[in-house]
Amino acid sequence: FEEYFPYTKSYITDESKYVNFQEVVEFFNYYKAGFLGKGELFSIYNQEYMKQTYLLFTFFYNSVDFDTFYKNVVWARENVNEGMFVHAITMAVFHHPQLKGFVLPAVYEIYPYYFFNTDLIHSVTFRKLYDQKFGFVSNGKYNVVYSNYTALYPVEYYGEDKLSYFTEDIGLNAYYYYFMMDYPYFVGTDKFNLYKDRRGELYMYMYQQLIARYYLERQVNFMGPIEEFDYDFPIKTGYWSKLSYYNGIPFFVRNDYYSVSKDFYYQVNLLKDYEMRIRQVIDKGYYYAQDGSKIDLRQPESVEYVGNMIFANPDSVDKDYFGFLEVVARNVYSGGAKFAKFFPSALMHFETSMRDPFFYQLYNRFLTFYYQFKSYLKPYTYEELYFKGVEIKSVVFDKLLTYFEYYDSDVSNVIPLKASGEKFFDFSVFARQKRINHKPFSYTMDVYSEFAGKGVVRVYMGPKFYDFKQLQYLKKYFVEVDQYLYDFVTGKNTIVRNSRDFYYSVRDRTTYTELYKKIMTAYNGGEKFVLDNSEAHCGFPDRLLLPKGLPSGYEMTFYFIVTPYYAPKVQQFSTYDYTYSCGVGSGSKYIDDLPFGYPFDRDIDFSYFYTKNMYFKDVLIFHSDEFKANLSY
Questions:
Q1: What is the pTM of this model?
Q2: Helices (H), 80-130
Q3: Cα 397–Cα 398–Cα 404 angle in degrees, nearest 5
């Protein structure tokens, strides 16, 4: 677009246009010394590229007004590595206070390469070559290419491919990507206020919930527990993603029984050292910070320190000592570092990590520190569990049904447009893919209360157990599906709650083309555009709420608990507008002040655990083999 050409020549150097010019000068100097070139492979887990990305992000972030920001973005779009540019601008839009409410296209529309396999990308570009109308609205329903799931696994591989509909789901991978962009492992301190969101605890809880949800999907497919691995033995689980980068180079493949080459064995020793230090500190129960203050690791709130310690973010107490466990492990088991040119695998990107079965094995191992820390905390007392005068009498569910459906994703970005004359928003190519979904359902809960006032309801879903004491082991596989504040009245309270209203889940994003058309219609005085948080990037995909059922029904357990309302330090939604923002760094995201995962986050004392304000409900999840078509046309 010719109007942008003047801005691509140079960035703005006027000191008055920046909030913190010192940080911007650091970027100028580093850029002149040499940044990653355009067309090169990028990964945020490469230390050098991470530093460059951070400097580019601060360059954007320090713009004093939108005009400066905009011109610098246009310059960077033309002059900086593509992967780095997308990463930095996404972070800037998410974190800059004045850019709240800006909506970027979904990451799978920006970068279809990271979400769809190479044969689909090839089909799209090939179709465009021999059919000039392909992609334009006038072509009607023919702008669709079918996409399969990509995973291919050897026979002895315990059927990991049965889970590809879950691990390769674009919604799930986008959810993880957006979480990691909201809380990047290399961003922190008072400047961004991420610590206000109980960052360390949130990190641990997010991974615990992801592993639990993956475990439930394994159980439904009769696949047994998550594999263990050891640093001293070959990694049994290889991975071939069948993805390619935008420059045509395939993702690096990790072979089965993968061994770390001897050149990188020093990194394996590093991992062992980091793990030993973290374990020792947790076992010891205290740690002296660099300023000499003593941190007591036998207090529940110290989970914040443990989380930051393991993930080594800037809010960590001593990352020089506890090391970069996560970053080093990903580099070691990606295997691409041995080449002269950096050659990342799926494990080296937020967008593709969750496709690799080893991701779950690795983070399952890291979570042992979390469980170790929690094991030293005393079990909740009867008084902490019981809500006097409140009793859950019954819970009734609708029929729970899962099914596969076709879903269309916009992959137009794969095709370069020839000239600026072509109208971009008249052009859409769709990848049609089978995805798991569930029928919307409701539950009805009857609660008797002896008092009128606020209470908080938490709902968990987990594996069926046959002996109550199995819960001690299985509690870590319970997924929190809902949490809400309720005003109880004296006597009987009947709560009807629909799955569409669940606290943690969000519906599918509107494609960017559709969103643009809706906005312009509203802008020109047509249909109103509703602000209801539906385009916000945070939230677990509603479609993946339930694990895939069986035609005859698969039994799961739902757990309900009503607790008194413990007001958070900052009232929920008091410092940000929930209708369009995710509230990152606001400190007011949470309903109450209880620990994440309560009451399953500590060991259980079965002599008094089951109180009247709790309820376990066994339900069957059915699966329909009938195919539902959720098509754009």
A1: 0.93
A2: 82-95, 107-110, 118-130
A3: 120
